[in-house]
Write a structure and sequence with these properties.
Jelly Rolls, FAD/NAD(P)-binding domain, 7-stranded antiparallel beta sheet, 10 helices, 6-stranded antiparallel beta sheet, 4 domains, alpha+beta
Length: 750
C-alpha cells in the first residue's frame, strides 16, 4: 500500500496562519534570530488583506476619521504599508500580495509552507504542545513540525483548538464584565463574513446573465436602495452574512449564501434598469473565499473589555495598541433591517497587554491576530488587521526572548522581563503609547547632539488661498510648558464682527481630543482683507502638550491658508468621516459607557492646508536632543529634529567625550504616521511622504563616509557596518527630501 511523503521539521518557533499577524510575527522573530516555520493554508499571504479577499489594511488611524493623530502602527506592518505606497499607489491587491511574499522570502530563517493546513497536534503533557502535523494539498506532503514554542495566528484558532486551549465564541452578557454595550443575556451571535467583487469599464456595452443561484428578490436586502455603481471591493463590506451561524464549521455554507447575494446584487445593478451608468461595466473579479471577522477568541491571563478601550486603561505589560472604533455589526448581516454597523470611538488609542497574547492553559502557546483574549465587545475594535499585525510583532519579539532565556510566555510578565520586552519592541519600531525608549546599550544616549540648524516655527506663510469659516477649525500645536505664545491669524472680514477664540487641551496626556478649555479671547474685527488678528490667551501651561487653538464658525470671516507643513502640527476641523462615523459629534445612547465628544479631523493631502499664522515668540519644538528622548513620533510634542529651510547642508551631529566603537546605526524618518496608507482599492497622490529624507550620508570623524543612501522612502533604516568603527563623532547629512521640512525622530547607535 502506498503512503504520502512525510517531512519532519525541527524549528525554534512555529507560526500557524499567514495573515498579517502571522507574517509580522514570523518576520519579526526571524529578524531576532529564531528559525521560524510559517504555515499558511492559502496560496498567498495576507489573509483578509490578500488578493483572495481584498480588504484594505486599517488600524488605529481609522481612515483619519477619529481623533487618533499620528497613530499608524509601527514596525513591520508600517514597513509593509510604506513599501506598498512606494510600489503600489494604485492599490492593486496582486501587487500587495507580492510585497508580502517578498518580505517573507527575504528572511532566510523562515521556512514558508503555503497551501498547508494544520490538522493535528501532539502534546508532551496536558499543557505543552510538542509538535503540529499539517498537510499540503499541492505537493501531497505531510509535515510534522516540532518546536518549543508555537503561535496561533490562524484566525479560527486551529492550533489552539486542537491543543485544548480555552476559548469563547459568541457575545457575553453585560453583567459578566460590566460592559454597557453588551446585551442583557449571553448569546451565540458573532460578526459575520463579507465577500466583495470588482468591476471594470470595458468602453462598450456588456450584457450580464446571472447564474441560477443568484439572489432574485433584491428587496430581501433592506439596504438595496443604497447600492451604487461606484461601490466595489471592500466598499461593499456590508454584504455580510453568518453571524447567527457557526462561523468555523458553517463557513462554506456562509460563502455560498454570500455568492448568492453578491451575484444577485450585480445582476440587479446590470439588469434592473436603475443604473444606466453600469452599461459598459463587466464583472472583473468575484471573491472566492469570504473575509471572516469573528469565530473563536482564546483566553489569556487577562481579558480585554469595553472599559479598557473606552477608558484607555494603562497596563504595566502593554506591548501594543489599538484605536479602531468598537465596531459591531448585526448578526443577520445584509438581511438585517438595522444599520450595517455601529461604531463607537474612544478619545484616543488604548494599550493592549501582553497577558492577552498567550493561552491561559497551554503553556507554550502564543495567541495573536484576532484570536487575542478579549470580549466580543472589545473584539469589535481589536479585530482589524493593522492592530492584529502590530500584536503579531509583539509576539515575535516575545518568542525570541523566551527562546534566548529558556522561558515560557507567562514568565515575561515579571517586571524586569517585561521592561526588557518593551524596550526591545520599541527598538523594532513597535509603538506602545506612553512607553518611552530607554536602552542603556544605545550609545546615542551618551552623545552630545547638535545640528547645523533647527527650525523655529514663527509663521506659516499664506499661500494665496482663503477658506470660509463655515465649520469650526483649530490649529493643533505642540506647545512647551510655560506661557502660550501669541497666535496671529490673517483673515478677510466681509462686515464688522467679532471673533471668539479658545485654547483647549485633552484631559489625558497624549490624546488629541479637545476637552478642557484653558483660556479664551474675544477680538473685534472691522471689514477688510488680510487683517492680522492677534490671539493672546495670557495663560501658561504646566507641561508640554498638544493644544488646540479653536476658531468659530462665522459667515463674515475667511481664513488665509498655508501649504506649510511641519511634524506634529496640523490644522483640523470639526467634521465627520462617513466611513467611520455618523456625525461630527459622537453621541452614544445613554448608559452605553461610551463618551460624547467631537471629531476634529485634518484634510488629506493634496487638499490639506494649514491656517496661515504668525507665532510669537516662535515655537521651538524640533530640538536635536529630541532624537534620543525615547519617542519616535509626535506624542505630547513633536519629538523630532527638523532643520531650517534655508540650511543648504542640514546635518545632525552626535559627539562623544571619548571614542566609541560603533557596529550599527538606526534612524527613524518622517513617513507621516497620521496617514492610514490604506493598502488596496484606494489610490494615493504620493509615493513618498513629503517630510521623508530620501537620501542621506553618514560620516564619522568628519571625513570617513560610513554610508551614503541615495534612495529612501522607509520609516526606519539600520546601517549595519561591515566592520566596527572607532569614532568620536558621526554626522547625518541630509542630501534630499520631499516638499515638507525633513525630520528625524530617532537615532540609535550600537
Amino acid at each position: 500500500m502506498r503512503s504520502l511523503r512525510e517531512d519532519n521539521l525541527t524549528t525554534d518557533l512555529v507560526v500557524v496562519g499567514g495573515g498579517l499577524a502571522g507574517v509580522c510575527c514570523a518576520v519579526t522573530a526571524a529578524r531576532q534570530g529564531l528559525r521560524v516555520t510559517l504555515i499558511q493554508d492559502r496560496p498567498v499571504l495576507g489573509g483578509n488583506s490578500s488578493s483572495e479577499v481584498r480588504l484594505w489594511v486599517l488600524g488605529a488611524t481609522s481612515h483619519m476619521g477619529n481623533n487618533n493623530r499620528w497613530a499608524r502602527e509601527g514596525g513591520v506592518i508600517d514597513e509593509v504599508l510604506v513599501e506598498n505606497m512606494w510600489r503600489n499607489v494604485e492599490g492593486n491587491p496582486v501587487v500587495f500580495d507580492s510585497i508580502l511574499l517578498e518580505l517573507v522570502s527575504l528572511e532566510p530563517r523562515i521556512t514558508l509552507l503555503l497551501n498547508t493546513a494544520v490538522y493535528e497536534v501532539e502534546m508532551s503533557d496536558r499543557s505543552t504542545i510538542r509538535l503540529a502535523k499539517a498537510f499540503c494539498s499541492q505537493n501531497q506532503t505531510f509535515y510534522v513540525v516540532e518546536a518549543p514554542l508555537f503561535v496561533d495566528a490562524s484566525g479560527d484558532g486551529i492550533l489552539g483548538f486542537l491543543s485544548g486551549a480555552e476559548f469563547r465564541m459568541g457575545a457575553e452578557a453585560a453583567s459578566e464584565f460590566n460592559e454597557p454595550l453588551a446585551g442583557s443575556e449571553e448569546t451565540k451571535e458573532l460578526l459575520g463574513h463579507s465577500l466583495y467583487f470588482y468591476t471594470r469599464d470595458t468602453g462598450r456595452p456588456v450584457n450580464y446573465v446571472a447564474p441560477s443561484f443568484a439572489l432574485g428578490d433584491i428587496t430581501t436586502i433592506p439596504r438595496f436602495r443604497e447600492l451604487r455603481v461606484a461601490d466595489t471591493g471592500c466598499r461593499l463590506w456590508w454584504l455580510e452574512y453568518g453571524g447567527n451561524l457557526d462561523t468555523v464549521h458553517q463557513t462554506e455554507e456562509i460563502k455560498w449564501e454570500l455568492w448568492r447575494v453578491a451575484y444577485g446584487v450585480w445582476n440587479y445593478i446590470k439588469n434592473s434598469g436603475n443604473f444606466p451608468e453600469a452599461e459598459n461595466l463587466t464583472l472583473e473579479w468575484m471573491g472566492t473565499i469570504p473575509g471572516k471577522r469573528e469565530s473563536r477568541r482564546f483566553i489569556g491571563d487577562t481579558i480585554l473589555t469595553q472599559n479598557d478601550i473606552v477608558g484607555q486603561s494603562v497596563h504595566v505589560d502593554a506591548v501594543s495598541f489599538g484605536g479602531w472604533a468598537i465596531d459591531l455589526h448585526p448578526a443577520d448581516g445584509v438581511f438585517s433591517s438595522q444599520p450595517g454597523c455601529t461604531q463607537w470611538h474612544a478619545k484616543g488609542v488604548y494599550q493592549i497587554p501582553f497577558r492577552s497574547m498567550y493561552s491561559r492553559n497551554v503553556d507554550n502557546l502564543f495567541i495573536t491576530g484576532r484570536l487575542i483574549s478579549a470580549t466580543h465587545i472589545a473584539f469589535g475594535s481589536t479585530r482589524v488587521m493593522a492592530t492584529c499585525a502590530h500584536n503579531g510583532q509583539a509576539v515575535g519579539v516575545a518568542a525570541a526572548l523566551c527562546k534566548e532565556q529558556g522561558l515560557l510566555p507567562r514568565a515575561l510578565v515579571e517586571p524586569n522581563e517585561m521592561r526588557h520586552l518593551q524596550q526591545r519592541l520599541l527598538r523594532t519600531g513597535q509603538y506602545i503609547p506612553g512607553v518611552a525608549g530607554h536602552d542603556n546599550t544605545d550609545l546615542a544616549q551618551q552623545a552630545q547632539i547638535t545640528a547645523s540648524s533647527t527650525l523655529r516655527v514663527d509663521a506659516l506663510i499664506p499661500c494665496g488661498e482663503v477658506a470660509l469659516a463655515d465649520t469650526p477649525r483649530a490649529l493643533l500645536l505642540p506647545l512647551p510648558a510655560g506661557r502660550v505664545p501669541v497666535i496671529t491669524l490673517c483673515v478677510d472680514v466681509s462686515e464688522a464682527s467679532s471673533m471668539h477664540a479658545e485654547l483647549w487641551r485633552s484631559s489625558r496626556p497624549g490624546n488629541t481630543t479637545p476637552e478642557i478649555v484653558l483660556a479664551s479671547v474675544d477680538v473685534s474685527l472691522e471689514a477688510g482683507t488680510e487683517q492680522l488678528v492677534h490671539l493672546d490667551f495670557q495663560v501658561s501651561l504646566e507641561e508640554q502638550l498638544h493644544a488646540f487653538v479653536i476658531l468659530p464658525v462665522s459667515r463674515s470671516i475667511a481664513f488665509h491658508q498655508s501649504v506649510g507643513q511641519a511634524p506634529g502640527l496640523l490644522t483640523v476641523s470639526q467634521k465627520m468621516n462617513s466611513s467611520v462615523a455618523k456625525s461630527a459629534i459622537q453621541t452614544p445612547p445613554p448608559g452605553s459607557g461610551v463618551d460624547t465628544f467631537a471629531f476634529w479631523l485634518p484634510d488629506r493631502r493634496p487638499a490639506a492646508r494649514n491656517l496661515a499664522v504668525r507665532i510669537s515668540p516662535p515655537l521651538e519644538p524640533y530640538q536635536p536632543a529630541n532624537v534620543v528622548n525615547g519617542f519616535a513620533r509626535p506624542w505630547r510634542g513633536a519629538n523630532a529634529w527638523v532643520p531650517e529651510p534655508s540650511d543648504s547642508k542640514p546635518t545632525l551631529r552626535l559627539t562623544w567625550d571619548t571614542p566609541q566603537i560603533l557596529r550599527s546605526i538606526e534612524i527613524v524618518f518622517d513617513t507621516d504616521t497620521d496617514h492610514p496608507m490604506e493598502s488596496v482599492l484606494l489610490t494615493h497622490p504620493e509615493r513618498v511622504m513629503p517630510g521623508c529624507i530620501t537620501s542621506y550620508r553618514i560620516v564619522a570623524d568628519n571625513e570617513n563616509v560610513l554610508a551614503e543612501v541615495l534612495e529612501n522612502h522607509q520609516t526606519r533604516r539600520t546601517l549595519a557596518l561591515s566592520s566596527p568603527v572607532k569614532t568620536s563623532n558621526i554626522s547625518i547629512q541630509i542630501l534630499s527630501h520631499g516638499e515638507a521640512p525633513p525630520a528625524i525622530f530617532e537615532v540609535r547607535c550600537y
